[in-house]
Amino acid sequence: MHTNRFNYKLINQISFQTMSKLTKRSDDYSKWYNEVIDKADLAENSGVRGCMVIKPYGYSIWEKIQAELDIKFKETGHENAYFPLLIPKSYFTKEANHVDGFAKECAVVTHYRLKTDEETGEIVVDPDAKLEEELIVRPTSETIIWDTYKRWIESYRDLPLLINQWANVMRWEMRTRLFLRTSEFLWQEGHTAHATKAEALAEAKQMHDIYANFAEDFMAMPVIKGVKTENERFGGALETFTIEALMQDGKALQAGTSHFLGQNFAKAFDVKYTSKEGKREYVWATSWGVTTRLIGALIMTHSDDLGLVLPPKLAPYQVVIVPIFRTEEQLDAICSKADEIIKELRNKGIRVKIDKRTTHKPGWKFAEYEAKGVPVRLGLGARDLENGTIEVARRDTLEKTTVEQGDVANYIDNLLVDIQNDMFNKAKAYRDSHITKVDTFEEFKDVLKNKGGFISAHWDGTVETEKKIKDLTKATIRCIELDVEKEDGICVLTGKPSSKRVLFAKAY
After folding, report:
1. What angle do CA 70, 418, 431 make, to 5 degrees?
2. The CATH number, out of the four listed (3.90.1150.10, 3.30.930.10, 2.60.40.3080, 3.40.50.970), of the domain defined by the range 45-88+141-302
3. I need a surface site. Which of 128, 186, 247, 373 has the fewest CB within 10 A?
4. Around Cβ 122, how many Cβ atoms within 10 Å?
5. How many CA atoms lie within 13 A of 32 on its CB side?
6. DSSP character string of 332-401
């Protein structure tokens, strides 16, 4: 044995320094959230205030989200394109409601050149390089895209136009939190044009369904489907469809939105088509998107006091094999058997890696992969080789079992399905137990303070009442649920008539 490769005393010191315990969720949820991101090596704050660096492991989760959604988009006829990052300021003046929604968040480019100051030697903005028209760093792309669509759409034969863009956007934020709210973030934004109102509405609803199914099937995150109130709609939209999830601290999180834009942008940018009857008509529009905020939702829906917990469908690797050895000879023998197991797992489409590092002890690696949320860990040692067995540990429940090596591929194939389903059911049970009906404002405030979650309450339908409840409690109407029967009642605040309950919550 080469002591320079297997210095276990040094490794133990490293492990205690690196794999320290997390703050408990019950003690400080916000601090716990930041520590999970740090220990799982997902992201970090950058040198640019309000912006983050997404590290390889965090970005690999985004790539899984991106890949699965991209398949769904293309299956429904959408194509990917790319549009400019910089948008002329004049474009934003064409749709008043839209610009109102983003005016305070826009980053503006005013000059096109730097120069060296002759006296100080510093790099400064060249005052002679002022742009004739300021450019806005993309907060969303409706304006630049609809200016483009004017050139792309001429006839009914050009419709529907179904375009998606994977991009970054900039919305200036004063208070930021990794993944949940940063000045720059990654997303996809779909922008479609249709010949009729019915087709555009059907598109907006279809994408709403795709987001909901993705959240539940891949993220194992139950969501409530609904529409936003007029006050909470996307700027320029006639209807905003939303999926709302509930985090473990009882706060809601908007996980995706799909907007029916009517003809607002078509009229603003004069986008018309010639119908089959030869008439010039304005097209009908939608837009829809999800962001890297989904990674924040993933963390806060499933993770525990040991770190990240990932659903198998979105885990960068679903299984990690950790060799347990004392000598290089043992390591070689274990890796030989592990290679056989890896081949069997990959034949079943299972993503697997083996950690052959000799710089860290197995116990350190166990803690590392717990912090990273890898769904299944396999421990394989010299005794396992003798017995023909392998230890299987599942991350979500921390349960361990011993499996025959010849059965391990089939066992894990089934286990990953169980883990995915169990994670969804656990999150759904929590969500369902935190939807509370109230009929008075005192009940409303009590639940908000002592229980959290969604509050189902009657609302009189006015913007004034909605804003007053927000001012008094910081709770907002997350959505008006779809497919919920009407129920006559009185507004929880004003006592005025109401025909339907809506869902309130404090939210991220």
Report:
1. 75
2. 3.30.930.10
3. 128
4. 8
5. 18
6. HHHHHHHHHHHHHHHHTT--EEE---SSS-HHHHHHHHHHHT-SEEEEEEHHHHHHTEEEEEETTT--EE
